[in-house]
Description:
Structural class: mainly alpha
Distance between the termini: 56 Å
Amino acid sequence: MKLSNERKSLIIAILIPVLVGLLSYLLTRNGINNYTMNLIKPSFSPPPILFSIVWTILYVLMGLSSYYVYNSMSCHKGNCMLLYGLNLFLNFFWTIIFFNLEARLFAFLFIILLDVVVILMTLCFYGIDKKAGYLNIPYIIWLLFATILNFSVYLLNR
């Protein structure tokens, strides 16, 4: 079965954030284990397995939303894709800062920057394709939760 170019570009769009997330996970496994086993976490911290499930779903939604924007005819899609790339860059490095470097306060400040970039990206996507914007709402919600969790872990473990 031969895939159409449209289907190939959809698969690539979804694979990009999923692979960024996978690489991030592979590079931070030991730090994640330390977080899970040795740090004091707030009562609202979800079980470890939930993180993998949620992030996988979010990466797929990110990829799908980027596909809609990238394939649009909008003259603004370049700016949106730049924000998207910055989002992936910040997302990737936040995990390293938080889990491997254990710089929890810096990670908190870093994730606030990520929050702002993702909100701007979502608004930009929405301006081009409403579906693309809506697909990032769960990401914003999860990121805001992660921001609060990051700060709480910092406070509990300083």
